[in-house]
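COURSE: Structural Biology Practicum
ASSIGNMENT: Worksheet 4, Part C
STUDENT ID: 0417
INSTRUCTIONS: Below are two proteins. For each, the amino acid sequence is given first, followed by its structure token string. Answer the questions at the end about the second protein only.

PROTEIN I
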Amino acid sequence: MPTKLSPEQWESLAQKRRIGVSIPDLAKEYNLSPLYLKKRLQLCGIHIEVPESTKPRYAYPPRFPSDCLILCDSHIPYHDAKFINQVFALAQSWGIKNLLLAGDVVDIAALSVFAHRPEATLKKELSDLESFFRVVDEMFDKVLMLLGNHERRFLHFLKEELRAEHILKLVGEKKAVISEYSYAFVENWLVGHPRNVSVIPGRVPVFLSRKYPKYNVASGHGHLAGMAYCEDGVRLAVDIGCSCDEKRLDWIAEHLQTRGAMAQGALILRKIDSTIYPWWLHPKTDWEALARCYG
């Protein structure tokens, strides 16, 4: 019985062993003693290996170009059309052609586990979302929609049988791209719709900046608004604010609570040469004055 194999045969044998072929089977195939083969493999450090996971790695969040408008928490059909139109008009006057919708674009109240008004039907919400995208598609060249917790209502209700892209297919939207991620990178900015909320404006993006030390951070979800420095005193943290109308939300307007009022806001990231300038927008913005800056 031979005890020597060519280097090519040993490499082939080692590969088979790593993927789980048993020593007795290998010994029989290569005409070797099982005991000898076991010792030889141990000496060479060749062991059976756990197979690779069959699940995908979520390591590729989207990246979006600068010179973009970022809009959060519209909660269609509870959106504030006046504020959104003011923001859109400024973006158009500046030549901003990229729109990043950072979560909770549509409310999906019809599928909420919480009690809502009977008129909150899914058909009506999707119809209003379709009308929204009709305007967006005319005004912007590139549109990215991130998932918020309200869009995930739709996916969870259907037990993940459909994916995020089906939300746009239901309203016939073809220009916008929807991501399964709740965040994206805009050069040196991290923009997203985090799970966390706080009653203190700016706290969530500041905390996120600890996890992403190379990025400025802008976030939605909390319906708070404000801009502050991160703890390093260099980077910025922005609570973008919502673009919905608080007075249209029965679960806010009809209940007594200690939480502060919702705050509206939007953000434009404008790149001049190699520098990205953040323009935080809010209801007290002097729209006419700003329109003249780059108009």
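PROTEIN II
(use this one for the questions)
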Amino acid sequence: MPEPSATLAAAIAVAIAAGAIRGITGFGGAMVMAPPLALLYGPWLAVPVVMLLESLAAAPMLLETRRLIHWRVVGPILAMACATMPLGGQVLVSADPHSLRRGIAATVIVFAFLMLHGWRYSGPQRLPTALGLGAVSGVMTGATSIGGPPVILYLLSGPDAVRTTRANLTLYVGGISLAGIVVLWMRGVVDLRALWTALLLAPGYYGGLIVGTRLFPRFNELRFRQFTLVFLIAVSTGIVLA
């Protein structure tokens, strides 16, 4: 299933940049990839491709961090997200592609602004809050592949150590990505073209991830995160206006 060379080259460049940014900052693979891939390929193809790449990226990290996971915190969020993800899948298959593409970009803008300004959830970490957050995140993941940011903002505000929070986020991102793949496969969205496209982009994404991880000690993490978020806002604003 060959892709037009210019489109494929642009998609590979996006995947490399997304992997490098995730390797340096520890977040944002889906946020970086989803808006431009939705512009290049349309949301129907971009969403499952992002989920496939993100789920595979989380696997080795999960092996390293599995013993640090705080199940009582992340478990209810993940369970509710998996339960509501089919609603997001229905949005993906029924919404107008152009409107959904802009919706994906707008989602990135909102959460990039929140992260840029250092916003954190300030309320108590209670079960009803976790279930409500999981429900919203699940719908967002099924529709746009970007369901992690609200959970990131929530877990970063908790009392857990940084290593535990990282382990919780690794489990969550990997779990919702795998669940999303199943939901979209059942709806016929994960097809041979999605698998083929993910396969073509995987070397660039994981190559960028390795390079970014190795470059991490050379960067001022805070300033690079700020640069990345401003860059995401600029790119996504252009896609909204396109």
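ANSWER KEY EXCERPT:
Q1: The two ends are 28 Å apart (CA to CA).
Q2: The chain has ten helices and no strands.
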